[in-house]
Amino acid sequence: MRKNMPMIAPLVLSFDLDDTLWPVGPVIAAAERTLLSWLRARYPRTVSGHDIESMRALRADVAERFPEHGHDLTFLRHRALKELFGAAGHAESLADEALEVFFSARNRVEFYDDVRPSLIRLHSRYRLFALSNGNADLKRCGIADLFAGHITASAAGAAKPDARMYAALLKMAGVEAARVLHIGDDPLADVVGATQAGMQAVWLNREAREWPEAFARPPRTITTLAEII
């Protein structure tokens, strides 16, 4: 871990999830394929003429029409599915069943090798929280027992780096900002957002990426969670 300034001993560690604890791209791609296959088998008329790209375009259109829900990925996907079923003459309520198919696959994640052992050790010393713009479910992912709480963008009404996300975390954890250390892969959402909220922050840079010149250098950088310990 590169140190530029002394640390105040944290009482709470908060973690981003997607691309911090697991690579999210393959997970979402697999979940979308699973959903499309399910729709083709159960409700073929619904996806007649559709593929994964066109369904992504539909969600993008929903996001454009409902900017007030842009932070809520679950709303966007559910609304797109409702419109998909409705356009095919099916009951829009079938979107609930389809969304469950997607979520079941979306939460079949493959952790980076360092994640489980690191979380187990950190759990013995700190209270751990998840702070994610995504809609992963800690229980379905199999790590809920290691976390004291989970703040999602949907629940907070905003997405990182919005201050409301971090305020929700502080309220849930019951500590002052300086006693929280946030760890995540996204320079803006995780590092800049957390430091602007008064928290300590660590940039998890697994792939030797260049830090964006537009932002002040991160206080600390690590390549695996094991380096926190």
CATH architecture descriptor name of the largest domain? 3-Layer(aba) Sandwich
Any idea of the CATH topology of the largest domain? Rossmann fold
CATH secondary-structure class of the largest domain: Alpha Beta
Total discrete domains = 2
Percentage of β-strand residues: 5-15%
Structural class: alpha/beta
Largest sheet strand order:
3-2-1-4-5-6
Helix content: 40-55%
The number of strands is 6
Low-confidence stretches: 1-5
- Mean pLDDT across all amino acids: 95
Biggest sheet record:
6 strands, parallel
Radius of gyration: 19 Å
CATH superfamily of the largest domain: HAD superfamily/HAD-like
Number of helices: 9
Shape: elongated
